[in-house]
Design goal:
This protein is α/β, with parallel strands linked by helices. It has two helices and eight strands; from the N terminus they run βββαβββαββ. It has one domain: D-tyrosyl-trna(Tyr) Deacylase, Chain: A.
Length: 150
């Protein structure tokens, strides 16, 4: 699994002209699933994101997690995070899992993330044409890959 984590002052996702999910202070997560992903990837990535200390404490140091600041999470599926641009100018998405594999893993990740956060996570709709708006706070943007645990 690969995630782009953005600390936001606000974020929303619109589908067919209707706002599907919106948050204020928290994290916007863009998530891609690959066929090799397992429940261990879900467990590790969810825990890492919820405990990631990227919110300011009283001294202005990034020392608090989304959970500690009472923030929300907006989760958006985005298979293009696994784009390969090695050959030519048209990206290949062969590492991204097909929907029959990706959807159950995405749904399991959503449940685990909600459990770890302690409240429901807002989402887009898997496979839909979505318009995502955000105000990146900082800006803070971090890429995390469950297969490359630095």
């Amino acid at each position: 699994m690969r995630a782009v984590v953005q600390r936001v002052a606000e974020a929303s996702v619109t589908i067919n002209g209707q706002i599907r999910g919106a948050i204020e202070t928290g994290l916007l997560l863009l998530l891609a699933v690959e066929e090799a992903d397992t429940p261990e990837d879900i467990e590790w990535l969810s825990g890492k994101i919820v405990r990631l200390r990227i919110f300011n404490d009283d001294q202005g140091a990034m020392n608090r997690s989304v959970q500690e600041v009472g923030g929300d999470i907006l989760l958006i599926s985005q298979f293009t995070l696994f784009a390969s641009t090695k050959k030519g100018n048209r990206p290949s998405y062969s590492r991204a899992a097909r929907p029959e594999i990706a959807v159950p893993l995405y749904e399991a990740f959503t449940r685990k993330l909600s459990e770890d956060l302690g409240k429901p996570v807002k989402t887009g709709e898997f496979g839909a044409d979505m318009k995502v708006s955000l105000v990146n706070d900082g800006p803070v943007t971090i890429v995390i890959d469950s297969k490359n645990r630095e």
